[in-house]
Amino acid sequence: MDELVERLKMPNAAQRMNTLGRWLVDAEPLTIWERDTRLLSRAGRKWRRRALEFSRRFIRPVAVEADLHHHEFDRRAFINKAAKRGFLSLLMPAPFGRANLRAYLRSTIFQVILIAEEFCTESGGIGLLLLVHYLGIAPILLSGHFPSYIRHLIPLQLKSMTDNPTLMAFAITEPSAGSDVEETEGGATARLVTTAKKTTGGYLLNGRKVFISNGQLADKITVFAKLGGEALDSWTCFLVDKKMDGFSVGRQERKMGQRPSDASEIILEDVFVPNKNIIGKLRGGWALNRNVLNYSRPAIGAMAVGMARGAFEKTLHFCRETFLGDKRLIDYQDVQLELADMFTQLWAARSMVWHSCRTLRSNQAAAAATKVFATDTAYAVCNKAMDLMGDHSYIRTGGVERALRDVRLTQIYEGTNQINRLALIEQQWEAEIEGSEE
Protein backbone atom coordinates (compact mmCIF):
# COMPACT_ATOMS: atom_id res chain seq x y z
CA MET A 1 0.00 0.00 0.00
CA ASP A 2 2.72 2.48 0.96
CA GLU A 3 4.68 1.55 -2.15
CA LEU A 4 1.64 2.25 -4.33
CA VAL A 5 1.12 5.63 -2.66
CA GLU A 6 4.71 6.58 -3.45
CA ARG A 7 4.29 5.57 -7.10
CA LEU A 8 1.13 7.67 -7.39
CA LYS A 9 2.80 10.86 -6.16
CA MET A 10 3.22 13.38 -8.95
CA PRO A 11 7.04 13.48 -9.20
CA ASN A 12 7.16 9.69 -9.64
CA ALA A 13 3.99 9.42 -11.74
CA ALA A 14 5.30 12.10 -14.12
CA GLN A 15 8.16 9.83 -15.16
CA ARG A 16 5.62 7.67 -17.00
CA MET A 17 4.68 10.57 -19.28
CA ASN A 18 6.33 11.49 -22.57
CA THR A 19 9.05 14.15 -22.70
CA LEU A 20 6.82 17.11 -23.52
CA GLY A 21 4.29 16.04 -20.91
CA ARG A 22 6.99 15.86 -18.25
CA TRP A 23 8.22 19.32 -19.24
CA LEU A 24 4.73 20.76 -18.81
CA VAL A 25 4.49 19.44 -15.25
CA ASP A 26 6.22 21.35 -12.45
CA ALA A 27 6.77 18.53 -10.00
CA GLU A 28 9.97 19.89 -8.47
CA PRO A 29 9.75 19.52 -4.65
CA LEU A 30 10.20 23.17 -3.67
CA THR A 31 8.85 25.03 -0.68
CA ILE A 32 6.36 27.80 -1.40
CA TRP A 33 8.95 30.27 -0.12
CA GLU A 34 11.49 29.10 -2.67
CA ARG A 35 8.95 28.88 -5.48
CA ASP A 36 7.72 32.42 -4.83
CA THR A 37 11.27 33.72 -4.51
CA ARG A 38 12.19 32.34 -7.94
CA LEU A 39 9.36 34.41 -9.45
CA LEU A 40 10.93 37.65 -8.22
CA SER A 41 13.31 39.91 -10.09
CA ARG A 42 17.00 39.47 -9.48
CA ALA A 43 16.96 42.35 -6.98
CA GLY A 44 13.91 40.92 -5.21
CA ARG A 45 15.52 37.51 -4.88
CA LYS A 46 18.69 39.08 -3.53
CA TRP A 47 17.03 41.12 -0.82
CA ARG A 48 14.61 38.37 0.21
CA ARG A 49 17.43 35.86 0.62
CA ARG A 50 19.60 38.40 2.45
CA ALA A 51 16.76 39.24 4.82
CA LEU A 52 16.06 35.57 5.51
CA GLU A 53 19.72 34.97 6.32
CA PHE A 54 19.88 38.06 8.55
CA SER A 55 16.71 37.19 10.44
CA ARG A 56 17.84 33.65 11.17
CA ARG A 57 21.38 34.61 12.05
CA PHE A 58 20.75 37.74 14.11
CA ILE A 59 17.05 38.06 15.02
CA ARG A 60 16.19 34.47 15.93
CA PRO A 61 18.83 34.13 18.70
CA VAL A 62 17.68 37.29 20.51
CA ALA A 63 13.93 37.28 19.78
CA VAL A 64 12.83 35.78 23.10
CA GLU A 65 15.04 37.97 25.30
CA ALA A 66 14.20 41.08 23.30
CA ASP A 67 10.53 40.45 24.05
CA LEU A 68 10.87 39.43 27.71
CA HIS A 69 13.51 42.03 28.65
CA HIS A 70 13.04 44.72 26.03
CA HIS A 71 14.36 47.50 28.27
CA GLU A 72 17.70 45.71 28.43
CA PHE A 73 17.83 44.94 24.71
CA ASP A 74 20.46 47.06 22.95
CA ARG A 75 18.18 48.42 20.25
CA ARG A 76 20.62 50.92 18.83
CA ALA A 77 23.38 48.35 18.35
CA PHE A 78 20.94 46.06 16.56
CA ILE A 79 19.73 48.83 14.27
CA ASN A 80 23.32 49.73 13.42
CA LYS A 81 24.00 46.11 12.53
CA ALA A 82 21.05 46.06 10.12
CA ALA A 83 21.94 49.44 8.61
CA LYS A 84 25.48 48.34 7.86
CA ARG A 85 24.04 45.52 5.75
CA GLY A 86 21.80 47.89 3.76
CA PHE A 87 18.46 47.11 5.34
CA LEU A 88 17.66 50.74 6.23
CA SER A 89 18.45 52.27 2.85
CA LEU A 90 15.99 50.74 0.37
CA LEU A 91 13.85 53.85 -0.17
CA MET A 92 16.24 55.25 -2.76
CA PRO A 93 18.43 53.66 -5.44
CA ALA A 94 22.20 54.05 -5.76
CA PRO A 95 24.13 56.22 -5.17
CA PHE A 96 21.81 57.53 -2.42
CA GLY A 97 20.55 54.15 -1.24
CA ARG A 98 20.78 50.40 -1.76
CA ALA A 99 17.55 49.82 -3.72
CA ASN A 100 17.98 48.29 -7.16
CA LEU A 101 17.10 51.03 -9.67
CA ARG A 102 15.27 48.83 -12.17
CA ALA A 103 13.09 47.26 -9.49
CA TYR A 104 12.63 50.62 -7.76
CA LEU A 105 11.22 52.26 -10.90
CA ARG A 106 8.50 49.59 -10.96
CA SER A 107 7.70 49.88 -7.25
CA THR A 108 9.24 52.15 -4.64
CA ILE A 109 8.38 49.86 -1.72
CA PHE A 110 8.48 46.30 -3.08
CA GLN A 111 12.02 45.66 -1.88
CA VAL A 112 11.01 46.98 1.56
CA ILE A 113 8.01 44.66 1.91
CA LEU A 114 10.19 41.67 1.04
CA ILE A 115 12.54 42.29 3.97
CA ALA A 116 9.59 43.21 6.22
CA GLU A 117 8.09 39.71 6.03
CA GLU A 118 11.42 38.01 6.67
CA PHE A 119 12.26 40.12 9.74
CA CYS A 120 8.83 39.66 11.28
CA THR A 121 8.88 35.90 10.77
CA GLU A 122 11.35 35.77 13.64
CA SER A 123 10.12 38.78 15.67
CA GLY A 124 7.38 41.29 14.97
CA GLY A 125 8.84 43.68 17.51
CA ILE A 126 12.34 43.67 16.06
CA GLY A 127 10.81 43.94 12.59
CA LEU A 128 8.99 47.09 13.68
CA LEU A 129 12.15 48.41 15.31
CA LEU A 130 13.93 48.26 11.94
CA LEU A 131 11.08 49.25 9.64
CA VAL A 132 9.74 52.37 11.41
CA HIS A 133 12.77 54.21 10.02
CA TYR A 134 11.18 53.94 6.55
CA LEU A 135 7.89 55.35 7.84
CA GLY A 136 9.71 58.37 9.25
CA ILE A 137 11.46 59.04 5.94
CA ALA A 138 8.38 58.43 3.76
CA PRO A 139 6.85 61.92 4.12
CA ILE A 140 10.06 63.48 2.82
CA LEU A 141 10.20 61.14 -0.16
CA LEU A 142 6.50 61.45 -1.02
CA SER A 143 6.43 65.23 -0.61
CA GLY A 144 7.94 65.56 -4.07
CA HIS A 145 9.79 68.64 -2.82
CA PHE A 146 13.26 68.71 -4.38
CA PRO A 147 14.77 71.21 -1.88
CA SER A 148 13.74 68.79 0.92
CA TYR A 149 15.39 65.97 -1.01
CA ILE A 150 18.66 67.91 -1.11
CA ARG A 151 18.53 69.17 2.50
CA HIS A 152 17.10 66.12 4.23
CA LEU A 153 16.33 62.99 2.21
CA ILE A 154 19.66 62.38 0.51
CA PRO A 155 21.76 63.03 3.65
CA LEU A 156 19.46 60.75 5.66
CA GLN A 157 19.70 57.98 3.09
CA LEU A 158 23.48 58.26 2.82
CA LYS A 159 23.69 58.02 6.62
CA SER A 160 21.33 55.03 6.53
CA MET A 161 23.97 53.06 4.63
CA THR A 162 26.46 53.41 7.48
CA ASP A 163 26.67 51.55 10.78
CA ASN A 164 25.45 54.66 12.63
CA PRO A 165 22.28 55.87 10.85
CA THR A 166 20.21 58.91 11.75
CA LEU A 167 17.14 57.07 12.97
CA MET A 168 13.71 58.38 11.93
CA ALA A 169 10.19 58.13 13.38
CA PHE A 170 6.74 59.31 12.32
CA ALA A 171 4.24 61.17 14.53
CA ILE A 172 0.57 61.81 13.80
CA THR A 173 -1.33 60.22 16.72
CA GLU A 174 -2.42 62.49 19.58
CA PRO A 175 -4.13 61.78 22.94
CA SER A 176 -7.59 62.53 21.51
CA ALA A 177 -6.92 61.85 17.84
CA GLY A 178 -5.86 58.36 16.77
CA SER A 179 -7.29 56.45 13.82
CA ASP A 180 -9.77 59.27 13.20
CA VAL A 181 -6.96 61.34 11.66
CA GLU A 182 -6.42 58.53 9.18
CA GLU A 183 -9.89 58.77 7.63
CA THR A 184 -11.68 61.70 6.01
CA GLU A 185 -14.88 61.94 8.06
CA GLY A 186 -13.09 61.22 11.32
CA GLY A 187 -10.40 63.74 10.50
CA ALA A 188 -12.98 66.49 10.03
CA THR A 189 -14.06 66.18 13.69
CA ALA A 190 -10.74 65.11 15.26
CA ARG A 191 -9.67 66.96 18.41
CA LEU A 192 -6.09 67.99 17.65
CA VAL A 193 -3.83 69.63 20.22
CA THR A 194 -0.49 69.86 18.42
CA THR A 195 -0.20 73.27 16.79
CA ALA A 196 2.36 75.29 14.89
CA LYS A 197 2.48 79.06 15.43
CA LYS A 198 4.20 81.30 12.92
CA THR A 199 7.26 83.15 14.21
CA THR A 200 10.31 84.82 12.68
CA GLY A 201 12.13 82.33 10.46
CA GLY A 202 9.87 79.38 11.22
CA TYR A 203 7.23 77.94 13.54
CA LEU A 204 6.84 77.17 17.24
CA LEU A 205 5.40 73.71 17.83
CA ASN A 206 3.40 72.91 20.95
CA GLY A 207 1.49 69.77 21.84
CA ARG A 208 1.83 66.05 22.36
CA LYS A 209 2.05 62.96 20.21
CA VAL A 210 1.46 59.48 21.64
CA PHE A 211 2.15 55.84 20.76
CA ILE A 212 5.08 56.90 18.58
CA SER A 213 7.03 53.80 17.55
CA ASN A 214 10.76 54.31 18.21
CA GLY A 215 9.86 57.73 19.65
CA GLN A 216 12.37 57.39 22.44
CA LEU A 217 15.09 56.09 20.14
CA ALA A 218 14.71 58.25 17.03
CA ASP A 219 17.08 61.09 16.23
CA LYS A 220 14.57 62.94 14.04
CA ILE A 221 10.80 62.74 13.65
CA THR A 222 8.39 63.84 10.94
CA VAL A 223 5.67 65.55 13.00
CA PHE A 224 2.27 66.64 11.72
CA ALA A 225 0.73 69.75 13.31
CA LYS A 226 -2.17 72.05 12.48
CA LEU A 227 -1.56 75.77 12.16
CA GLY A 228 -2.72 77.87 15.11
CA GLY A 229 -6.43 78.69 15.02
CA GLU A 230 -7.09 76.44 12.01
CA ALA A 231 -8.46 72.93 11.50
CA LEU A 232 -7.04 69.66 10.16
CA ASP A 233 -6.94 70.96 6.61
CA SER A 234 -4.04 73.17 7.74
CA TRP A 235 -2.00 70.14 8.81
CA THR A 236 1.65 70.57 7.90
CA CYS A 237 4.56 68.17 8.20
CA PHE A 238 7.67 69.36 10.08
CA LEU A 239 11.02 67.62 10.48
CA VAL A 240 11.85 67.84 14.18
CA ASP A 241 15.27 67.07 15.65
CA LYS A 242 15.23 65.64 19.18
CA LYS A 243 18.08 68.07 20.04
CA MET A 244 15.81 71.08 19.49
CA ASP A 245 15.02 73.08 22.62
CA GLY A 246 11.61 72.19 24.08
CA PHE A 247 11.55 68.65 22.69
CA SER A 248 11.24 65.82 25.22
CA VAL A 249 10.13 62.21 25.47
CA GLY A 250 7.42 61.45 28.01
CA ARG A 251 5.62 58.24 28.87
CA GLN A 252 6.82 54.97 27.34
CA GLU A 253 3.95 52.52 27.02
CA ARG A 254 4.00 49.00 28.44
CA LYS A 255 2.80 47.12 25.38
CA MET A 256 1.20 43.71 25.00
CA GLY A 257 3.20 42.92 21.87
CA GLN A 258 5.94 44.17 19.53
CA ARG A 259 7.80 45.13 22.69
CA PRO A 260 11.36 45.55 21.33
CA SER A 261 10.17 48.75 19.63
CA ASP A 262 9.12 51.43 22.11
CA ALA A 263 5.85 53.35 21.89
CA SER A 264 6.50 56.74 23.42
CA GLU A 265 4.90 60.08 24.10
CA ILE A 266 6.51 63.09 22.40
CA ILE A 267 6.19 66.45 24.15
CA LEU A 268 6.66 69.70 22.23
CA GLU A 269 6.99 72.93 24.21
CA ASP A 270 7.75 75.96 22.03
CA VAL A 271 9.99 73.87 19.77
CA PHE A 272 11.32 76.20 17.10
CA VAL A 273 11.35 74.56 13.67
CA PRO A 274 12.90 76.60 10.84
CA ASN A 275 11.07 77.08 7.56
CA LYS A 276 13.55 74.82 5.80
CA ASN A 277 12.25 71.93 7.92
CA ILE A 278 8.74 72.16 6.51
CA ILE A 279 8.21 68.96 4.52
CA GLY A 280 6.15 69.48 1.40
CA LYS A 281 3.75 72.41 1.23
CA LEU A 282 2.35 74.49 4.06
CA ARG A 283 -1.14 73.08 4.76
CA GLY A 284 -0.28 70.07 2.60
CA GLY A 285 0.04 67.65 5.51
CA TRP A 286 -3.38 65.99 5.29
CA ALA A 287 -2.89 64.79 1.71
CA LEU A 288 0.72 63.87 2.44
CA ASN A 289 -0.28 61.82 5.49
CA ARG A 290 -2.92 59.93 3.50
CA ASN A 291 -0.39 59.14 0.80
CA VAL A 292 2.17 57.92 3.34
CA LEU A 293 -0.46 55.56 4.74
CA ASN A 294 -1.25 54.29 1.24
CA TYR A 295 2.38 53.22 0.95
CA SER A 296 2.79 51.93 4.50
CA ARG A 297 -0.38 49.85 4.86
CA PRO A 298 0.71 47.08 2.47
CA ALA A 299 4.01 46.98 4.38
CA ILE A 300 2.01 46.36 7.57
CA GLY A 301 0.33 43.52 5.69
CA ALA A 302 3.74 42.07 4.85
CA MET A 303 4.80 42.31 8.48
CA ALA A 304 1.63 40.52 9.58
CA VAL A 305 2.21 37.75 7.04
CA GLY A 306 5.71 37.34 8.44
CA MET A 307 4.48 37.03 12.03
CA ALA A 308 1.86 34.45 11.02
CA ARG A 309 4.39 32.57 8.91
CA GLY A 310 6.66 32.32 11.94
CA ALA A 311 3.78 30.87 13.97
CA PHE A 312 2.93 28.45 11.15
CA GLU A 313 6.51 27.24 10.82
CA LYS A 314 6.73 26.59 14.56
CA THR A 315 3.41 24.75 14.46
CA LEU A 316 4.49 22.63 11.50
CA HIS A 317 7.67 21.65 13.33
CA PHE A 318 5.66 20.82 16.44
CA CYS A 319 3.25 18.60 14.48
CA ARG A 320 6.17 16.73 12.92
CA GLU A 321 7.88 16.10 16.23
CA THR A 322 4.92 15.47 18.57
CA PHE A 323 3.17 12.11 18.88
CA LEU A 324 -0.46 11.41 19.71
CA GLY A 325 -0.66 7.73 20.45
CA ASP A 326 1.60 5.90 18.05
CA LYS A 327 1.37 8.52 15.28
CA ARG A 328 2.82 11.97 14.80
CA LEU A 329 0.28 14.78 14.81
CA ILE A 330 1.05 15.54 11.19
CA ASP A 331 0.06 11.99 10.23
CA TYR A 332 -3.57 12.68 11.18
CA GLN A 333 -5.66 13.96 8.28
CA ASP A 334 -7.58 16.39 10.49
CA VAL A 335 -4.29 18.09 11.39
CA GLN A 336 -3.17 18.07 7.76
CA LEU A 337 -6.40 19.84 6.76
CA GLU A 338 -5.89 22.54 9.38
CA LEU A 339 -2.28 23.08 8.30
CA ALA A 340 -3.34 23.22 4.66
CA ASP A 341 -5.87 25.94 5.46
CA MET A 342 -3.22 27.97 7.29
CA PHE A 343 -0.82 27.49 4.41
CA THR A 344 -3.41 28.58 1.84
CA GLN A 345 -4.41 31.65 3.84
CA LEU A 346 -0.80 32.79 4.19
CA TRP A 347 -0.15 32.28 0.50
CA ALA A 348 -3.24 34.26 -0.43
CA ALA A 349 -2.34 37.12 1.94
CA ARG A 350 1.22 37.32 0.62
CA SER A 351 -0.05 37.28 -2.95
CA MET A 352 -2.34 40.22 -2.20
CA VAL A 353 0.50 42.16 -0.55
CA TRP A 354 2.82 41.55 -3.49
CA HIS A 355 0.13 42.41 -6.02
CA SER A 356 -0.73 45.73 -4.34
CA CYS A 357 2.96 46.71 -4.20
CA ARG A 358 3.85 45.99 -7.81
CA THR A 359 2.96 49.46 -9.08
CA LEU A 360 5.02 52.64 -8.87
CA ARG A 361 2.16 54.66 -7.37
CA SER A 362 0.12 53.46 -4.43
CA ASN A 363 -3.67 53.36 -4.35
CA GLN A 364 -5.88 54.04 -1.33
CA ALA A 365 -8.42 51.28 -1.93
CA ALA A 366 -5.80 48.64 -2.72
CA ALA A 367 -3.63 49.64 0.25
CA ALA A 368 -6.55 49.58 2.69
CA ALA A 369 -7.93 46.28 1.42
CA THR A 370 -4.49 44.68 1.56
CA LYS A 371 -3.89 45.81 5.12
CA VAL A 372 -7.30 44.53 6.27
CA PHE A 373 -7.10 41.15 4.56
CA ALA A 374 -3.46 40.40 5.38
CA THR A 375 -3.66 41.37 9.06
CA ASP A 376 -7.02 39.68 9.71
CA THR A 377 -5.78 36.56 7.96
CA ALA A 378 -2.51 36.60 9.89
CA TYR A 379 -4.34 36.87 13.21
CA ALA A 380 -6.57 33.92 12.26
CA VAL A 381 -3.50 31.83 11.34
CA CYS A 382 -1.78 32.65 14.65
CA ASN A 383 -4.95 31.76 16.54
CA LYS A 384 -5.14 28.42 14.69
CA ALA A 385 -1.50 27.77 15.60
CA MET A 386 -2.47 28.21 19.25
CA ASP A 387 -5.28 25.67 18.78
CA LEU A 388 -3.04 23.05 17.20
CA MET A 389 -0.22 23.35 19.71
CA GLY A 390 -2.44 23.59 22.78
CA ASP A 391 -0.58 24.13 26.06
CA HIS A 392 2.75 24.22 24.23
CA SER A 393 1.70 27.36 22.34
CA TYR A 394 1.19 29.23 25.61
CA ILE A 395 4.80 28.99 26.71
CA ARG A 396 6.63 32.33 26.58
CA THR A 397 9.74 30.91 24.94
CA GLY A 398 7.86 29.01 22.22
CA GLY A 399 7.24 31.97 19.95
CA VAL A 400 3.61 31.29 19.00
CA GLU A 401 2.00 33.25 21.82
CA ARG A 402 4.41 36.10 21.03
CA ALA A 403 3.35 35.99 17.38
CA LEU A 404 -0.30 36.25 18.44
CA ARG A 405 0.46 39.24 20.68
CA ASP A 406 2.58 40.87 17.98
CA VAL A 407 0.18 40.36 15.10
CA ARG A 408 -2.78 41.82 17.01
CA LEU A 409 -1.21 45.26 16.80
CA THR A 410 -1.08 45.11 13.00
CA GLN A 411 -4.90 45.26 13.02
CA ILE A 412 -4.72 48.52 14.99
CA TYR A 413 -1.91 50.79 13.82
CA GLU A 414 -1.80 52.55 10.44
CA GLY A 415 -5.53 52.95 11.01
CA THR A 416 -7.63 50.26 12.64
CA ASN A 417 -9.01 47.74 10.20
CA GLN A 418 -12.44 49.32 10.62
CA ILE A 419 -10.99 52.66 9.49
CA ASN A 420 -9.28 50.94 6.58
CA ARG A 421 -12.58 49.44 5.47
CA LEU A 422 -14.05 52.94 5.43
CA ALA A 423 -11.06 54.20 3.42
CA LEU A 424 -11.67 51.43 0.90
CA ILE A 425 -15.35 52.27 0.56
CA GLU A 426 -14.62 56.01 0.36
CA GLN A 427 -12.47 55.68 -2.72
CA GLN A 428 -14.59 53.02 -4.39
CA TRP A 429 -17.79 54.97 -3.71
CA GLU A 430 -16.29 58.04 -5.39
CA ALA A 431 -15.24 55.88 -8.34
CA GLU A 432 -18.76 54.43 -8.64
CA ILE A 433 -20.31 57.93 -8.60
CA GLU A 434 -17.93 59.17 -11.29
CA GLY A 435 -18.55 56.06 -13.36
CA SER A 436 -22.32 56.45 -13.16
CA GLU A 437 -22.06 60.04 -14.45
CA GLU A 438 -20.23 59.14 -17.63
Automatic annotation (TrEMBL):
Coiled coil: none
Domain annotation Acyl-CoA dehydrogenase/oxidase N-terminal: ranges: 45-144
Recorded GO CC terms: plasma membrane
SUPFAM superfamilies attached to this UniProt entry: Acyl-CoA dehydrogenase C-terminal domain-like, Acyl-CoA dehydrogenase NM domain-like
Domain Acyl-CoA oxidase/dehydrogenase middle: residue ranges: 169-271
Chain ranges of the Acyl-CoA dehydrogenase/oxidase C-terminal domain: 284-425
Superkingdom of the organism of origin: Bacteria
Family, per entry: Belongs to the acyl-CoA dehydrogenase family.
PANTHER family: ACYL-COA DEHYDROGENASE (PTHR43884), ACYL-COA DEHYDROGENASE FADE4-RELATED (PTHR43884:SF19)
Protein name: Acyl-CoA dehydrogenase
Natural source organism: Caldithrix abyssi
Taxonomic lineage of the native organism: Bacteria, Pseudomonadati, Calditrichota, Calditrichia, Calditrichales
